[in-house]
Amino acid sequence: MASVEQLEARFRSLLPGAVDLLHAMVRLESHSFDKPGVDAFAEFLAREFRRRGAQVDIVPEARRGNLLRARWQSGAPRKVVMLLGHLDTVWPRGTIEVRPFRIEQGKAYGPGIFDMKSGILVALMICQAFGEGNLDPEKDVVFFFTPDEEIGTEAGLPHLQAEAAGCQAVLCLEPSLPGGKVKTFRKGVGGFRVRVEGIAAHAGVDHEKGANAIAELARLIVRLQEMTDYGRGITVNAGKVAGGTAANVVPAAAEAEVDFRVSTAADAEWLEGRVRALAPTDPRCVLRIEGGLNRPPLERTPAVVALYEAARGIGRRLGMELGEGSTGGGSDGSFTAAMGIPTLDGLGVEGDGAHAVNEHIVVDDIPRRAALLGELIRIL
Ligand SMILES: [Zn+2]
User: Fold this and answer.
1) Could you say which of 69, 264, 272, 319 has the lowest number of CB atoms within 10 Å?
2) Number of neighbours of residue 290 by Cβ within 10 angstroms
3) How many whole angstroms from 275 Cα to the centroid of ligand 1?
4) How many angstroms does the Cα of residue 276 sit away from the middle of ligand 1?
5) Contact between 170 and 144 (Cβ < 8 Å)
6) How far apart (Å, rounded) are the C-alpha atoms in residues 379 and 374?
7) pLDDT at site 327
């Protein structure tokens, strides 16, 4: 079996073929809402993982693209580590004609290349190293890909949770932060729809008989906004309001859409409790609140830090200083972290421009990331 340095050298020798494979993957456009596109990409990857010796299942999904699960069986399945990714991109079919795959000054460009087809490429390279005997993971490895991460993972989530339940750790192939940093903290994201039902009345003749839903909602919004606590990393934002029919009518209905972000699961519970405990000031108004947490926070727990330190140590042997950072958005890694499974996110190839037209990766970083991730799987 190869050392991590030898592993990097081996991956480097495979780089031309890997770049061709990445090109093919970028050409297979897989927008979240394009089921035929996501399905074709899943089929392509199924063949690639099978060729490398993995056991592959395609999990059918009616509304979104299918899921893909490939399993490397080591014969010593005391532990299972998951490499987690998503098949979909934010780019509709046809984007490839406008922005074709290209390499310029060591950077590879193309729709979905950073988020996250290059991450999937790294997973394939690692699977290949298992098959060639250059890397013995000493455990089973599940390569798991959801079809709808970019639109909230509604279809993929139950499957992901079922699969992750048996795993000791999850390594998430999401894009890295600038400079190739991994993500050790993500905020949790949620939202509420706050609806007030009042009593309509003539604004001149029967003002006192009306219960003004807009006035009631306005009081509630002030109380919601005041739940913001920057020190704790809690923000509440009433971002959209609607209500009323005409200036001379006491409005019978008003509603607001509210976004919130939290740093811990405990804060999410605290905030949801406070929001649900809100009561109207005017007892004639009826308050209806829907919603809650959509993506839990990925907290920087001691288990997450331990994973990061392990990755950082391997990085040093490869001559790189692996940094860490945080982001306000969620990913599938947020879900596995919330299950209490140690999760390290942002392990994808160095690059920039996720969801942007300048989306690219640093080609030279591919063999190094593959070696880092491969060795990390081995030592867990
Ligand atoms: Zn992504």
Assistant:
1) 319
2) 10
3) 31
4) 32
5) no
6) 9
7) 86
Determine the distance separating the centroid of ligand 1 and the alpha carbon of 284, expressed in angstroms: 46
Ligand 1 centre to CA of 1 (Å) is 32
Q: What does the angle CA 5 – CA 113 – CA 331 come to, to the nearest 5 degrees?
A: 90
pLDDT at 160: 98
Å from CA of 39 to ligand 1 middle = 17
Query: Ligand 1 centre from 220 Cα, in Å?
Result: 35
The rounded Å distance from CA 131 to ligand 1 centre is: 27
What's the average model confidence in pLDDT over 1-19? 94
> What are the structural domains of the chain?
4-186+297-379 (3.40.630.10), 188-295 (3.30.70.360)
Average pLDDT over residues 134-139: 93
Distance of alpha carbon 26 from alpha carbon 118, whole angstroms: 9
Distance CA 144, CA 167 (A): 12
pLDDT of the residue at 22: 98
